[in-house]
Q: What sequence folds into this?
């Protein structure tokens, strides 16, 4: 058991290290090529911090553990919003948020997840055609980000010191670290769950979801430290959208995905609730409050407690 736990922790470390450096390399390439910073934040950074969830869910799907894939996706949304955003908003509430920059993304998120909830209840999961549709929606989402960023002024800062080949090499190494970490996390996470008698869904929505959300945590905390809390806020909503479209879409398109009743009855509705608690007041007042952060953390603690109480 000790070896299993050590390998599980090693997987978390590899994911955290690989995800953090991958984001840095992706942003460096984008700046070198003079890609708009809005596009970088909404697509490349969010994609980089969501790669662990994508790899874990895809690996789990190939291993026949659909409950891990689904639990990781919706568990990560809850963790990103209730724990990570709740923590940062409690420490330093967002101020002067540009509602237009997150308004359409919030509407997009709520529309997609509502349709996914209806389909999940009606069909008991997502088949391959549904997965392909989610991937097609991701292409549309990426296009909307690029289109919305048109007309943005690019940076005039000298980026001649950035080496594209070097950054591409870093991307490749980080991708390998993420892949190795994802395999260690899934394999040993399932072993720990089985030895403790914990259902796979419970371990997925708690430990694995928290582990794969470490890049979002690192990004949000660093943004907060540097005085750019709104960057972390934007990364949260971008990562949550990618959790729906890619973390669910890729495994569903490859193998299909069945959903447990607990996923459609608790995880998805709670994902909608915490996103509403975080972003509806922000859209109305263009700022958040510590009360929201404290409420979100409380919701996450209650969710974890209830998840572990289920299997007793």
A:
């Amino acid at each position: 058991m000790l070896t299993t736990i050590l390998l599980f922790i090693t997987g978390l470390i590899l994911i955290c290290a690989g995800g953090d450096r991958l984001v840095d390399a992706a942003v460096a390439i984008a700046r070198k090529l003079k890609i708009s910073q809005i596009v970088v934040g909404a697509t490349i950074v969010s994609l980089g911090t969501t790669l662990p969830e994508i790899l874990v869910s895809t690996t789990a799907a190939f291993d026949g553990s659909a409950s891990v894939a689904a639990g990781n996706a919706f568990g990560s949304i809850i963790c990103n919003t209730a724990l990570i955003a709740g923590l940062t908003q409690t420490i330093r509430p967002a101020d002067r948020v540009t509602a237009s920059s997150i308004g359409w993304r919030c509407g997009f998120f709520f529309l997609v997840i509502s349709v996914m909830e209806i389909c999940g209840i009606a069909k008991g999961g997502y088949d391959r055609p549904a997965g392909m549709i989610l991937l097609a929606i991701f292409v549309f989402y990426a296009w909307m980000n690029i289109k919305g960023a048109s007309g943005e002024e690019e940076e005039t800062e000298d980026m001649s010191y950035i080496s594209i080949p070097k950054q591409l090499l870093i991307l490749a190494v980080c991708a390998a670290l993420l892949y190795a970490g994802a395999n260690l996390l899934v394999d040993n996470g399932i072993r720990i769950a089985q030895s403790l008698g914990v259902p796979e869904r419970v371990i997925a929505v708690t430990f694995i979801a928290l582990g794969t959300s470490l890049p979002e945590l690192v990004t949000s905390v660093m943004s907060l430290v540097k005085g750019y809390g709104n960057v972390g806020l934007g990364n949260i909503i971008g990562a949550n959208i990618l959790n729906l479209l890619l973390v669910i879409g890729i495994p569903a398109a490859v193998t299909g995905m069945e959903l447990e009743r607990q996923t459609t009855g608790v995880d998805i509705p709670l994902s909608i609730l915490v996103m509403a608690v975080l972003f509806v007041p922000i859209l109305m007042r263009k700022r958040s409050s510590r009360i929201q952060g404290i409420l979100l953390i409380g919701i996450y603690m209650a969710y974890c407690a209830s998840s572990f109480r289920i299997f007793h």
Observations:
- The mean pLDDT is 82.
- Residues 87 and 270 are 18 Å apart (CA to CA).
